[in-house]
Amino acid sequence: MGFVIRQGCGPRPAGLLRAALAACLLAALPAGAQTTPPAGMGANQNATNQNATASSARAMTDRGIELFNAHKDAEALTVFRRAAAIGDVDAMMYLGVMYGSGRGSPTDYTSSMAWFRQAAEAGNSQAMCNIGVLYLGGEGRPKNYDQAMTWFRKASAAGNTEAMFNVGVLYRDALGVPADYPEALRWFRRAAGEGEIPAANAIGVMYQQGMGVPVDYAEAMKWYQQAADAGSDAAMYNIGVLWEGGLGVARDTAQATAWYRKAATAGNEHAREALKSLGDKE
Asked: Is the dihedral of CA 275, 276, 279, 282 positive or negative?
């Protein structure tokens, strides 16, 4: 199971379960930490302390991110736990990623899901999506497409574009629901309209292969180009396929090679194989 961390309104790790939520959170509290203000504290003082706590948690999370990016995982895990214990949702997300990918500790999907659920309960749409991904992949428990769909829809309703794309994948690939290409295309268009790059590529594939729509190579090229311009190596490869096969365009091996090279440079293995078949050594 892969995880992605997106920057935006804080990090948005993609990927993952439910279990020892309470135990996990209690373990994250530093010894002697107070979870409620002392009796008799005035409202203004309480608000001031809450703001100071939030600022402290944010600073800790920022430090944790620096450690995470430097692969100082044990230190990052400790810092994120402290920040999460005083309510930082981004820290909870990073903890879910770290436990789910075995960074800083052995892989522990139970703890990973516990942190993702905590973040989801705080309204974080990416955490909702992560829960759906875990159910989809069956990490730490049997696959459950119904639960995956439920969580993807919750995240989509909260505006998460990755979840919108995933709903489309479930309809396209008949995962827990009958195959429904028009519905898949509707979700892909919704996600692409919000900037989800893989969705634009997926729309191109549907037009190229005639999935629920007539085959339309020009429309496929349009969507691939949109995704490629945004950095999708898969779309770059697919453009190469159209040029090499003369699909909707005059066959042009030079153009195909150029696009395969772009995709290969971006890490696409299919493009590397295509270059080999064309006799190109990159």
From this structure: positive
Cα–Cα distance for residue pair 280/282, rounded to 1 Å: 6
- Dihedral of CA atoms 229, 232, 238, 244 in degrees, nearest 10, equals 60
The count of C-alpha atoms lying within 13 angstroms of the C-alpha of 124, restricted to the half-sphere facing its C-beta, is 27
Query: What does the pLDDT read at residue 280?
Result: 73
Q: How far apart are the first and last CA of the chain?
A: 31
Dist CA 151 CA 159 (whole Å): 12
Query: What's the pLDDT tens digit per position in 167-202?
Result: 999 999 999 999 999 999 999 999 999 999 999 999
Taking alpha carbons only, the member of 253, 250, 219, 221 closest to residue 235 is 221
Q: Which domains does the chain have, with CATH numbers?
A: 1-30+51-159 (1.25.40.10)
CA distance 117 to 14: 13
Radius of gyration of the chain (CA): 22
